C-alpha cells in the first residue's frame, strides 16, 4: 500500500502523454475578388504539403476567415499549403431564398490541383493572407 | 459484574470512539478514491454506449445489403427531380418530399409493422403523425438520444446562412430523428461543375445518393398528380402510384474503389445544444430536407472534431464519442475513423469510384 501514491503518480503522468498533435501557428486572412470585393460565403481549406492534414475556416460575409486544424481557431501547421475555396449555394426552387451571396467563386477553386492557390504559412510571424479568386455566374 | 469486567468496559468505551479529525481524514481519503474511480466508470459507460452505437451502424449496413439483395440496388438517400421542382401553393413538393432512405430500409431492420405504415413514393406529410414520429432505437446513438428526445417537434424556422442569405419562415413538420446519415459522396464538382452537384438526383459520388423518381407508367405531372398539404389533410391526396421506381441506382458493382474502403453511412455532426432541433437534427424521414439524414465528406468538408467544432456545418459527419466518427462501410464493416484524417483522404473514402484505392486509414 505504500506504493500506491507512486503508482497513481506514474498513471497520471502517463495519461498526459497521449498528445501527438502537430504544432500549429495562427492563420487568418481574407478572400477577395480582383475588384477588391469580398467573397461572402463558403469554406476555405489549407492542405499541408508536408503532413496529411488540413486546416479549415468558414468565410464570413466580409470575406475574412480564421483557420483551425485541431480546434476552431488554432491555425495551420507551418510550411507550404495548397488552398481550396468551396461554396455551396443550393437552390432547387422549393424555398425562396433572399439571395445575398454576392459573387460566386469559380468552382475550379474547390478542387485541389485545379485551384492553383499555393501559400506559405510562416512559423515565426503572424500570418495574414489575402487570397484572390475569380468569380463565375451560376445558372 | 466483577471489577475486571468494569475495567474492561471502561477501557473499551474509551478506545471505541473515533475523533472528528480521524473521521474527516477517512472521509477525505474515500472521497479522493471515489473521485479517481468516477471518471473510469464514466469512461466504461461511454464505451458501452459507443459499442451500442457501432452495433446500430452494423444493423443499418446489414439492412442496406439486404435491401440490395432484394431490390438489386442500394436505396436512394432521397428522391428529387432534377431541374425545376413542381411546387404547389402550400409549398409542398412532388418528387422531393418522399421519405428518406431510413424509411426504405425499415422492412430490412425487421420493422415490418412500422414499414407497413409508409409508402416510399408518397410525400412525408401525407403519412400519419404516428408513423412520422415513430423513432427506431437503431437510428439513435445512445450517447446523444434516448426515447425522451427522439422526436423533433413541429417548428417554424427562418434559416440564416453565413452569407447573410435567409429563407422565408418555413414550417418544418415534426418527426422522428436519426443520428446516422447516408454518405452522399464528396464535394467534387459533378456534371454541372459545382461542388454542390451531389444534391441532385443521380449526381452524388457516394453509395447512398439522391435518386430521380420515375414511373414505369406514362404519367404527366399536370394531369395526374395532385399535391398534398402536410397540415391540411383535406387538400387532396397524391395518388400513390405516380412514382414506382427511381433512376440513378447504385449497385455493388458501381463501387469500383472497393467496398472495404467506401463509406455507406456514419454518425452525423450535430452542434451542441441542437439535438432534435431542425434543421440541425430534424425529422429524418422527411425527404425534402437532406441535411436531416445525409452528409458529405471531402475537401472543404472535413469530419467535425466534436459537437463544439464551429468549422463544421450541416454537411459534416461528426460524433459525440471521443476520438473519431464511426462509419459503416460498403462491405458491411463498421470502423471508427479519426477526426484528424485529412480531408482529401476522407473524400476518397466517401467517393465510390474516384479511381484511388485507399489502403490505410
Structure, described:
- The complex is a heterodimer of chains A (139) and B (361).
- Chain A has one helix at 4-15; strands spanning 27-32, 43-48, 54-58, 64-66, 79-86, 104-105, 117-121, 127-132, 135-136.
- Chain A has 139 residues and is mostly beta strands.
- Chain A has a single domain (22-136), classed as Sandwich (Immunoglobulin-like).
- In chain A, the strands form three sheets. In chain A, strands 3-2-5-7 form a four-stranded antiparallel beta sheet, with no helix packed on it. Chain A has a three-stranded mixed beta sheet with strand order 4-1-8, with no helix packed on it. A two-stranded antiparallel sheet of chain A has the order 6-9.
- Chain A is globular, with a radius of gyration of 20 Å.
- The model of chain A has no long low-confidence stretch (mean pLDDT 83).
- Chain B has one domain (44-350).
- The longest helix of chain B has 52 residues, at 20-71.
- The radius of gyration of chain B is 27 Å and the shape is elongated.
- With 361 residues, chain B is of the alpha+beta class.
- In chain B, strand 10 and strand 11 form a beta hairpin.
- The A-B interface holds A 8, 40-41, 43, 45, 47, 52-54, 56-61, 68, 70-72, 84-90, 92-102, 107, 110-112, 138 and B 36, 80, 84-85, 87, 91, 93, 96, 161-168, 170, 187-189, 193-196, 199, 288, 299-302, 305, 308-311, 313, 315, 340-345.
Amino acid at each position: 500500500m505504500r506504493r500506491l501514491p507512486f503508482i497513481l503518480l506514474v498513471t497520471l503522468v502517463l495519461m498526459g502523454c497521449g498528445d501527438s498533435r502537430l504544432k500549429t501557428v495562427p492563420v487568418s486572412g481574407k478572400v477577395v475578388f480582383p475588384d477588391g470585393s469580398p467573397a461572402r460565403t463558403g469554406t476555405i481549406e489549407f492542405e499541408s504539403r508536408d503532413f496529411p492534414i488540413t486546416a479549415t475556416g468558414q468565410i464570413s460575409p466580409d470575406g475574412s476567415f480564421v483557420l483551425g486544424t485541431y480546434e476552431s481557431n488554432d491555425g495551420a501547421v507551418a510550411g507550404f499549403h495548397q488552398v481550396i475555396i468551396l461554396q455551396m449555394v443550393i437552390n432547387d426552387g422549393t424555398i425562396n431564398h433572399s439571395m445575398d451571396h454576392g459573387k460566386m467563386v469559380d468552382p475550379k477553386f474547390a478542387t485541389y490541383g485545379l485551384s492553383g492557390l499555393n501559400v506559405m504559412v510562416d512559423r515565426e510571424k503572424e500570418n495574414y493572407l489575402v487570397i484572390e479568386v475569380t468569380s463565375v455566374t451560376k445558372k | 459484574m466483577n471489577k475486571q469486567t468494569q475495567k474492561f468496559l471502561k477501557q473499551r468505551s474509551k478506545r471505541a470512539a473515533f475523533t472528528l479529525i480521524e473521521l474527516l481524514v477517512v472521509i477525505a481519503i474515500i472521497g479522493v478514491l471515489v473521485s479517481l474511480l468516477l471518471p473510469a466508470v464514466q469512461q466504461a459507460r461511454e464505451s458501452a454506449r459507443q459499442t451500442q452505437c457501432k452495433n446500430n451502424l452494423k444493423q443499418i449496413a446489414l439492412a442496406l445489403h439486404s435491401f440490395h439483395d432484394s431490390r438489386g440496388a442500394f436505396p436512394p438517400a432521397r428522391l428529387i427531380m432534377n431541374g425545376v421542382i413542381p411546387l404547389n401553393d402550400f409549398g409542398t413538393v412532388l418528387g422531393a418530399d418522399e421519405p428518406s432512405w431510413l424509411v426504405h430500409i425499415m422492412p430490412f431492420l425487421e420493422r415490418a409493422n412500422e414499414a407497413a405504415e409508409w409508402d416510399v413514393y408518397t410525400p412525408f406529410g401525407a403519412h400519419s403523425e404516428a408513423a412520422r414520429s415513430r423513432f427506431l432505437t437503431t437510428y439513435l446513438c445512445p450517447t446523444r438520444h434516448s426515447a425522451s428526445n427522439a422526436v423533433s417537434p413541429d417548428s417554424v424556422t427562418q434559416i440564416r446562412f453565413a452569407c447573410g442569405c435567409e429563407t422565408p419562415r418555413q414550417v418544418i413538420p415534426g418527426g422522428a430523428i436519426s443520428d446516422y446519415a447516408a454518405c452522399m459522396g464528396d464535394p467534387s464538382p459533378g456534371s454541372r461543375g459545382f461542388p454542390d452537384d451531389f444534391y441532385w438526383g443521380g449526381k452524388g459520388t457516394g453509395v447512398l445518393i439522391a435518386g430521380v423518381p420515375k414511373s414505369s407508367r406514362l404519367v404527366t405531372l399536370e394531369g395526374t398528380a395532385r399535391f398534398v398539404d402536410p397540415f391540411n389533410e383535406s387538400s387532396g391526396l397524391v395518388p400513390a402510384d405516380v412514382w414506382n421506381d427511381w433512376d440513378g441506382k447504385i449497385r455493388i458493382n458501381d463501387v469500383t474503389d472497393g467496398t472495404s474502403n467506401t463509406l455507406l453511412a456514419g454518425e452525423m455532426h450535430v452542434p451542441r445544444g441542437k439535438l432534435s432541433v431542425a434543421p440541425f437534427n430534424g425529422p429524418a424521414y422527411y425527404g425534402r430536407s437532406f441535411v436531416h439524414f445525409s452528409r458529405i465528406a471531402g475537401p472543404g468538408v472535413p469530419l467535425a472534431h466534436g459537437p463544439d467544432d464551429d468549422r463544421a456545418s450541416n454537411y459534416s459527419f461528426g460524433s459525440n464519442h471521443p476520438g473519431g466518427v464511426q462509419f459503416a462501410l460498403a462491405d458491411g464493416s463498421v470502423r471508427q475513423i479519426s477526426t484528424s484524417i485529412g480531408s482529401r483522404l476522407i473524400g476518397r473514402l466517401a467517393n465510390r469510384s474516384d479511381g484511388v484505392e485507399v489502403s490505410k486509414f
